[in-house]
Write a structure and sequence with these properties.
Length: 370
């Protein structure tokens, strides 16, 4: 249960409605005209009955925030009381959209402000903030102004670069899904526990212990990552019984829908190369290096492969660096123009497909509905 809840009251009738239900200790201060950016302590009243003790903030003209106790029953009573005096109920998301539209100069700014509220990381917020006056907005304005003098190839290349950068930015803003795959008994579950810093999975020396997938969230550098531990890939296990076959199929489906793969093999097991048909960035991880100390470098089969001991938390910082490099996140320029909504990606793709029509398409990108 939340300790504090907030109710927004906005619109031309907001002041009048609040006057009927809010009783402030100093009536002269509340009735004064200079109330913007001021807060008032008092009570929400229904006739003679005090509903709750609250703090009211006047955020702008005809827009107030009522901060009350977090008990859902109290919140419901206050909302119904406001409705009885003419207020119309609106869900938080639509209210946020309308507020951003009032306070923003174009659609890109509206979308950036809304996306900031859901960004998985602070770096994602920085990327989104950069798009408002610089980044995507600046590129669109400059391209529109110079559309008649730019060759179509330059416009097309600019769009393609934005779409490439957008894929990386999306990973930073929304987070990524990383599948931990590899043969049985390679230490995948131990690696998951190591990466998220807590024991999420029971580990065993028995091959094929994990039959279902398990996920946990952790942090890799500046990005949030959902790590998924999967059943070990093994053709022999796949044909053992219906349960094993289903587990192997689930692993393959997860691999097809992730952002990156950690392919884990044991340094003590048969030398194995990561499959090349995942269609995703792959980092090959040689685990259990604490059991194989000599000539480790001779066992690396893949460019960028990493030796770790998940059991003893060795090599994890190096692994994190390889993951960021594989995802293109390492050193990403937060000021680069990126398309961070589906609408924007579709508009940039449309300009890339028909660069000669940039003058007609770009105004919609800048000012189109969000």
């Amino acid at each position: 249960m939340a300790a504090i809840s907030s109710i927004a009251l906005a619109g031309p009738d907001a002041q009048g409605i609040l006057d009927k239900v809010f009783q402030e200790g100093c009536a002269e201060a509340w009735s004064g005209s200079d109330t913007i950016n001021s807060t008032f302590h008092g009570s929400i009243i229904d006739g003679e009955r005090v509903v709750d003790e609250v703090v009211v903030g006047c955020e702008s003209e005809n827009e107030f925030a009522i901060h009350c106790h977090g008990n859902p029953l109290l919140v419901e009573q206050i909302v119904k009381l406001l409705q009885s005096h003419g207020a119309a109920l609106m869900d938080a998301e639509h209210f946020a959209i309308q507020r951003c539209q009032r306070e923003s100069k174009n659609a890109i700014e509206v979308e950036a402000k809304l996306a900031m509220q859901k960004s998985a990381t602070l770096l994602g917020v920085k990327i989104l903030q950069s798009q408002i006056d610089d980044g995507l907005s600046k590129w669109a304005r400059e391209t529109l102004d110079a559309a008649d003098s730019l060759c179509v190839d330059d416009i097309q290349k600019g769009c393609e670069q934005i779409l490439r950068h957008s894929k990386i930015a999306r990973r930073i803003i929304e987070g990524v899904r990383i599948v931990i795959a590899g043969p049985p008994n390679s230490g995948k579950s131990t690696l998951l526990n190591c990466l998220v810093g807590t024991k999420q999975v029971i580990v065993s020396n028995t091959a094929g212990t994990t039959r279902d997938w398990v996920s946990a969230t952790g942090q890799v550098g500046p990005i949030r990552a959902e790590f998924i531990d999967t059943a070990g890939l093994d053709d022999a296990l796949a044909g053992a019984d219906a349960i094993e076959e289903n587990a192997q199929q689930i692993t393959k489906e997860l691999l097809s829908a992730c952002d990156a793969v950690l392919y884990v093999v044991s340094v003590l097991g048969p030398q194995s190369s990561a499959p090349s048909d995942y269609g995703r960035p792959v980092v090959c991880v040689y685990n259990k290096c604490d059991l194989f100390q000599e000539n480790k470098d001779t066992r690396i089969q893949e460019p960028g492969a990493v030796f770790v001991s998940a059991k003893y938390n060795e090599g994890i910082d190096v692994l994190a660096g390889e993951i960021m490099a594989a995802l293109g996140v390492d050193g990403f320029d937060v000021a680069a123009p990126v398309a961070f909504t589906q609408r924007q990606r579709e508009m940039i793709s449309a300009v890339a497909a028909a660069p000669a029509h940039a003058r007609e398409l770009l105004p919609e990108l800048i000012d189109g509905s969000s």
